[in-house]
Write a structure and sequence with these properties.
Blueprint (H helix, E strand, L loop, with lengths): L1 H13 L4 H16 L12 H11 L18 E2 L10 E3 L15 E7 L15 E3 L5 E4 L6 E7 L7 E6 L6 E6 L4
Antiparallel strand pairs: 1-7, 2-3, 3-6, 4-5, 5-6, 7-8
Amino acid sequence: MRLVLWFLSVLMFSLPLSTAEASEWGCEVLLCAASNNPSWHGVESCHPPMERLISAMKRPGFSWPTCPEGGAGKPGYERYADCPAGWAATEADQDLNHGRSGELSRCMRTVNACKGRPFQRYRNEDRTATTKDGVTRVYSDSSSCEYREYTARPLRDEPYYFDIESSQGGTTERHYFDLRD
């Protein structure tokens, strides 16, 4: 009997959801993901739909539940946060980026070190230096006042987001969330 019950429960959870059921779940996910003070983690009624989502994401063939009524489709994902003020996002070197070209995983800024003083000379083999806090400096040439600094781009605590269209005025608001259980 236990084996039959186990088999039926596995079968029930592996069947596709009806459209209405998926839409309702998608709307629950959207409402919970948009909660930011507190986040969905602090809203007890959000735990079941979000935990169901996290569990479903681990299965092959996962498809995000959507909420057409909520003005949002599938969520986006932004791994990296903005660079600090004065820094710009840039690609990492191929070897540092594990072969993923095009990913803006570092922050970069150009620094003028002379500021009215005569330039300093650097030996060609000393064109790159790394500071204690992990910032890499790359000097243009041996007689330049300018160098570029690179640092790892900060990761977002909440990398997923929904863009939700306002029912008034046609504006869109971005709501970030995480899926840590």
